[in-house]
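Subject: design request, 392 residues
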């Protein structure tokens, strides 16, 4: 018995070693069945834990996506009136440019047609840019207060004041045509009007670029948000805001004075407007007749200019008044102040939207009326000639 045990210990390398070898033999990786079961259990727990983590992450992502979609839908519903207004304005300005391109280019209305094209182009680009910015802010809210977004918004101030430049040029052009007909005929040409409008636009562009060089405000670095001109707090920013206010009020004052004087001339029976018939431009027709641009043609563009200038003043004065009002009011979070600023912003957008429809409707209506009058005159002339023929 002793010999058998000793031989067994020698075969397995001793008692302890023998047990080790015996436990190591069943598995090729050096682990026994119990160790493998524990390993599989640990692996299963890790797999289940990872699956739960992935499921929770997916659930959180789905919840965040649903929340983002819900927030986008809510914002889109809130902004839909503004988006529709801007889209309506863009379509109107495109239609106005189409009508002006197809209109008859007579010598008497070339200057007015140029100013109307400038106004439609300026308003159309301004509205299209603001529409793109609003839609981008709705679908990508994180870009709302980015630095480059604030810079684009600051540059887009140009189109608001640019519309005022065209309105001023239009008012002065009509005022000279009615009150200084000789000077207007000899000195005011379409080339001169182009130079004046482009120089005014260049000056306004330099004004809106000043905040990029430290004079004026467009971005609050500490709060990391875009800022309006009227929200200025620093001395230089306040000076820039009042410079902006002063230029806008000069535009409004000039337009009001010219509009009142033009209205006085149009309503006066003995005005110099009657002298326009002396220098009406002519246009040859195929049969050799000479057709003149009568006083009615000049009055048509005069009333269009008056309508546009009046709309500009009514929509721009609240925007200008909001600048000193915001600086003087101590409580910036006042409900009345916020309501007034929203009304001022809405009127400015309404001005850019309504302009094309005002002069396009007037152009089409007056053109239709003129064609009807011409047909009536032709029929009367034909009947008169027929009555003068001798009867056979």
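Subject: RE: design request

Done. Sequence follows.
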């Amino acid at each position: 018995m002793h010999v058998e045990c000793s031989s067994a210990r020698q075969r397995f390398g001793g008692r302890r070693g023998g047990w080790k070898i015996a436990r190591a033999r069943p598995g090729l990786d050096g682990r026994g069945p119990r160790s493998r079961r524990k390993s599989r259990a640990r692996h299963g727990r890790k797999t289940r834990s990872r699956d739960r983590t992935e499921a929770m992450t997916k659930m959180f992502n789905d919840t965040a996506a649903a929340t983002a979609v819900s927030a986008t839908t809510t914002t889109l519903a809130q902004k839909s009136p503004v988006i529709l207004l801007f889209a309506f304005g863009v379509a109107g300005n495109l239609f106005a440019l189409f009508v002006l391109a197809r209109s008859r280019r007579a010598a008497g209305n070339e200057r007015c047609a140029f100013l109307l094209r400038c106004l439609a182009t300026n308003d159309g680009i301004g509205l299209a840019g603001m529409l793109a910015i609003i839609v981008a802010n709705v679908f990508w809210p994180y870009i709302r207060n980015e630095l480059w977004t604030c810079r684009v918004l600051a540059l887009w101030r140009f189109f608001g004041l640019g519309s005022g430049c065209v309105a001023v040029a239009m008012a002065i052009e009509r005022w000279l045509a009615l009150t200084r007909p000789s000077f207007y005929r000899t000195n005011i040409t379409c080339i001169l009007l182009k130079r004046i409008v482009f120089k005014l636009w260049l000056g306004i562009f330099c004004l809106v670029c000043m905040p990029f060089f430290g004079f004026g405000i467009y971005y609050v670095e500490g709060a990391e948000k875009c800022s309006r001109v009227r929200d200025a707090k620093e001395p230089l920013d306040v000076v820039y805001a009042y410079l902006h206010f002063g230029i806008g009020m000069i535009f409004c004052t000039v337009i009001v004075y010219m509009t009142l004087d033009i209205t006085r001339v149009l309503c006066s029976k003995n005005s110099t407007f009657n002298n326009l018939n002396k220098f009406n431009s002519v246009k040859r027709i195929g049969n050799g007749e000479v057709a003149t641009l009568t006083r009615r043609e000049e009055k048509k563009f005069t009333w269009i200019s008056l309508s546009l200038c009046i709309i500009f003043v009514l929509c721009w004065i609240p925007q200008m008044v909001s600048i000193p009002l915001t600086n003087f009011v101590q409580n910036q979070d006042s409900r009345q102040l916020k309501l007034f600023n929203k009304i001022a912003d809405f009127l400015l957008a309404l001005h850019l939207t309504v302009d094309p429809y005002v002069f396009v409707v007037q152009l089409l209506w007056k053109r239709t009326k003129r064609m009807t009058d011409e047909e009536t005159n032709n029929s009367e002339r034909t009947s008169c000639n027929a009555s003068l023929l001798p009867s056979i």
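The chain has eleven helices and four strands.
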